[in-house]
Amino acid sequence: MKIFVADNYSEMSKQAAETVIQLMQSGRRPVICAASGHSPEGLYKEIIERVRKKELNVENWLFLGLDEWVGMNAADEGSCRHHLDLALLNPLQIPEERICFFDGRANDLEAECQRIEKFIRDQGGIDVAVLGLGMNGHIGMNEPGVSVNSHSHVIDLHPITKKVGQKYFKEEKELAQGITLGVTTLLDANNLIVVISGKNKADITQKVIEEEISENLPATLLRNHPALRIYLDSDAASKIMAH
Predict the structure, then answer these.
(1) What percent of the chain is predicted at pLDDT more than 70?
(2) pTM higher than 0.90, yes or no?
(3) Which CATH class is domain 2-238?
(4) Which of 31, 215, 227, 241 has the maximum number of C-beta atoms within 10 A of its C-beta?
């Protein structure tokens, strides 16, 4: 586990983007797993800016979604796919055939999980997974108590996730379940990049970095990954810096 602390959000986003871009040069058709949410948005802006300036070509990149609310897909405002479309996929003009994303409205969610796992296998694995950190320590929608041995699965949402998730919607939504890449799926990725920003994440960041590895704190399950990099702005790092 390598931890990088930047003075501010913008600096953190630049550093994380540099690393992602470098790591994505490795494969012929490298797969980037992209989390929706506010922390990675700056990183995505950096990538978009490089492409716009013709300093970066992402035409061979494949984009994999991390998770989705059950009952939603790209057509739903506030869905993970909708959020990622706005933050990354639309600005980069990524065609649908280079995107693989959970459909939370699918009739058979188990088949949906298998479809995603098959896509990952067929591509030879995930090159880079960009992740955020939930207020309850979740990664993707792998909630407290999740098995370290989980592949893509449907999960009942934790009360904190249901509450925090409301920020993505204009009016209150009934959020009951999520469909997500599992912990094992993420641990099998070549590189894990976790971006965490803001004072409100300082307590949970400290726990994830300093407390014992436990399924009750899902993000700690990533600590044994040989290529885990955690990028923090000074606000998110404030509790660990106090030592």
Answers:
(1) 96
(2) yes
(3) alpha beta
(4) 31
